[in-house]
Specification:
single chain; 68 residues; three-stranded antiparallel sheet
Length: 68
């Protein structure tokens, strides 16, 4: 199994930006740890939310916008 993040606009549309990292992970925990370390940079690059993918299956979606 491969785990990855899909970067999305606020309305859920996938972003097609070659500047966003295309990381693949061998475990869910590795993917989630990586996101915890890199979410701010992804948000600054234009991602409003991310979806965790297990192969092609969406596991969950979360916002990268800070709560006010």
């Amino acid at each position: 199994m491969a785990w990855s993040w899909r970067y999305e606009a606020g309305n859920g549309t996938p972003l097609d930006d070659d500047e966003l990292p295309g990381e693949l992970f061998t475990s869910r925990g590795d993917a989630e740890s990586w996101l915890g370390e890199n979410w701010q940079e992804l948000a600054e690059a234009g991602a409003k939310q991310v979806t965790l993918l297990e192969d092609e299956h969406a596991v969950y979606t979360m916002s990268l916008e800070e709560a006010e």
